Amino acid sequence: MSRTGKSSRSGTRRGTTGKLQLAEVLDLTAAAPLAQSLIPRRGSDLTIDASKVRRVGAQCLQVLLSAEATWKADGVRLTVENPTEEFLASSALLGIQLNQDTARVEPA
């Protein structure tokens, strides 16, 4: 831990790419690879491009929500840009609403 109370691990990852392109199909089989692609980007601001998403399942949305919570806890920014209608519709169906910064669960 650093003197600021945050893991020193985040400082070593500042050089990682700050953009992640989501796949066209985010189904059950895409959840683990998506999670693995997020790990090396932890600790840096990240923009997730959802412009190619045509199908998204609950498992991948869960991975993205977990990432949002992790990035928030680390004090860095996570944004989702260019969400497709399919991405938005699937998110809304599961009670997830996008705002200008990131995906957030909307209280029922």
Class of secondary structure makeup = alpha/beta
Number of strands: 7
Residues in helices, as a percent range:
25-40%
Strand content: 15-25%
CATH topology: Transcription Regulator spoIIAA
CATH architecture assignment: 2-Layer Sandwich
**Describe the biggest sheet?**
3 strands, parallel
Poorly predicted runs of 5 or more residues: 1-15, 100-108
Reading side by side through the largest sheet, how are the strands ordered? 1-3-5
Rg over C-alpha atoms, rounded to the nearest angstrom: 14 Å
> DSSP helix count?
3
Say what oligomer this is.
Answer: single chain
Q: What string gives the helices and strands in order?
A: EEHEEHEHEE
Keywords:
disordered C terminus, alpha/beta, two-stranded parallel ribbon, three-stranded parallel β-sheet, disordered N terminus, Transcription Regulator spoIIAA, 108 residues, globular
